[in-house]
Amino acid sequence: MTSFARDARGYACLGGMRLDELLTQAEVATPAYVYDLDGIRKAATALEQAFGTRDHLVAYALKANAAGSIVRTIRACGVGACLVSGAELLVAEGAGIAPTRMVMNGVAKADWELDLAISKGLYGIQAESLEELERIAARARAQKRRARVGLRINPGVEIDSHSHIATGHDAAKFGIPRDQLATAFERVAASSDELGCVGVSVHVGSMLTRPEPYLESATAVCEVIKEAERAGHRLEYLNFGGGFGIQYDDQPIEAPARFVEAAIGLSERMGLSALKLVVEPGRSMVGPHGVLVARVVQHKQGKSRQWLMLDAGMNDLLRPALYGARHRIEPLEHAPGALEWRVVGPICESSDDFGSHAIGEPSEHVVIRDVGAYGFSMASEYNGRALASEVFVDAGKLVHVSKSPGYRAWVERRLRA
Ligand SMILES: Cc1ncc(COP(=O)(O)O)c(C=O)c1O
To answer: With respect to CATH, is domain 4-36+287-416 assigned 2.40.37.10?
Structure first.
């Protein structure tokens, strides 16, 4: 369910508020991200409810969007955190999530990040290689603590997704190959003062549109756990990762709850219903509940194209340039018409291109839809452009504004460098 809609007069709205009025009230200039916390709350609650009575941990992947207002909203729904850095751990903790409800991934966690994760007592530090297991053991030994590790497996599964967001195939840098897992379990068992293996996890990639590929990699997790149990290892959780897709266009997509139902069914069929079931969604919780509002700086009549040039570019929203992703772009002040425009940003790169969109008569502003996930979190200051402002609405009210630091902050930092 998206938070985006139009009112009776055709104005673009988010969370029931007109976006033009909201930006005036928030006193921010474009480009500006706007998020609907109520939509995020509903998505988190629906996912929690999908588990019913099953022992579980929904670990929100902060990489999708680590804004404090969002993480606090999600935490209040009983959700934990999935981290990929020490900084994300500190944000999650600062937002009130207990470390015992956090799991951490990352192929090359730095020593300080391992030290932090071990000292905080994370629910699972998910090792992505035998080499990393050795490092975790050494850091735990130095702290005289026992690290709770999970083994992130590489299931060798190909998914139908952009190659940059597929992580579970043999050539990917992620996870421990299956033929090294027996060694990994033995390694952990041999140093029980330092390491306790508590779970097995997987994440095959993002933007899954249906549960089948999810179940394929989840089956690999279940098989690994069964084998480990037969070898005498006792585990606490199985973690099937994130990856639930969202509707970026008009194509229907399976709801996250369907993935959860399928995951519960699989774990029961595999005789693993006594273990905690962990999932790591990011995009599905926040993606549909954020938009990026941009100003049309100018039009340009090219030889073969009509360009619409925005004040938001690939530095604000990288997904189109990075993954060839397509986000719907619509006028802010009126409903879209038939006239097509090639929509681009101001950055000095040809890939700063959001694609062709039926905008109709050009408006003063446009709305780039479904950017709540992997939008601001991937933003940069490339070309000396300031990070965008962020505006948060909840239940039809403006509740928080995080203003852009402005370009002068960039100028000062570069001069000091
Ligand atoms: C290990 C891991 N878990 C969870 C996620 C979240 O995935 P998504 O946002 O597609 O749900 C990611 C994202 O790439 C990830 O790398």
So the answer is: yes
